[in-house]
Amino acid sequence: MEFCERKPNRIPEYDYGTNGAYFVTICTQDRKKILSNIVGDDAHIVPKTYGMIAEKYIRNVPEIEKYVIMPDHIHMIIRLDNGSMWASTPTDCQPQHNRISNIVRSIKVLVAKEIGESIFQRSYYDHVIRNQQDYNEIWQYIENNPRKWVIQKQGFTS
């Protein structure tokens, strides 16, 4: 079986432990809709068991400023600053570089341990938030993502 070569989505030579804000998306394996349901015209999110488990660990990461748990993915804004430290486990003392990957890995590992299997894709998407306008647009994207899901679903069924 041949694997597709992935296009790198990271900025070359950029330290992803640098202070700032990052937009991160984690998808479920095979995009299975196992985290939540989005119901009604008001796009109310109803978490499923796996989504509730993921949220329990997300809420314990102080660097996560905003998140939404969609049926098959999670969007987050993570803000790093000098005062915060998150390693692969809360008791580890690691250098600050790659803190984004440590946060994502921690969430994935803790969720997998509680569930008994891995439910997320191996990798994740990240985007360095470059300025306040970018931050505001991503915040609104996360805020509006459930409504967008409902609109797209209605468009496909009509």
Keyword list:
globular; 158 residues; four-stranded antiparallel sheet; 22% strand; 34% helix; alpha+beta; Alpha-Beta Plaits; two-stranded antiparallel ribbon; 6 strands
Textual characterization of the structure:
Helix 1 (49-58) runs antiparallel to helix 2 (99-115). The protein has one domain (20-157): Transposase IS200-like (Alpha-Beta Plaits), CATH 3.30.70. It contains three helices and six strands, in the order E-E-E-H-E-E-H-E-H. With 158 residues, the chain is α+β, with helices and mostly antiparallel strands. A four-stranded antiparallel beta sheet has the order 4-5-1-6, sandwiched between helices. A two-stranded antiparallel sheet has the order 2-3. It has helices at 49-58, 99-115, 132-157, and strands spanning 20-27, 36-39, 44-47, 64-69, 73-80, 125-129.
Structural class: alpha+beta
- The end-to-end span amounts to 38 Å
Shape: globular
Number of strands: 6
Q: Pick out the low-confidence regions.
A: 84-97
Which CATH-level-2 architecture?
2-Layer Sandwich
Number of domains: 1
Strand content: 15-25%
How large is the radius of gyration?
16 Å
Please count the helical segments. Answer: 3
CATH topology grouping: Alpha-Beta Plaits
What's the gist of this structure?
The protein contains three helices and six strands, in the order E-E-E-H-E-E-H-E-H.
